[in-house]
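pinging the channel bc i need a second pair of eyes. not urgent but kinda urgent?? the chain im working w is below, pasted from the shared doc
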Amino acid sequence: DDLVQTILRVADNPEEARNAAHKSRQKVEREYSFERMVSQYEEIYNSAVG
């Protein structure tokens, strides 16, 4: 029900949809940047190797 309500609200409000999409993209770019992913893989590798 919550998902359906959210979809209906966004469908009725394109500006809200654009804002949500913009914020989501910014979060993905921040959380999953190449530099951040490399750093996380290095940490995993170093903890596994010792």
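so The chain is about 90% helix and 0% strand. and The mean pLDDT is 94. — does that match what u expected or am i reading it wrong
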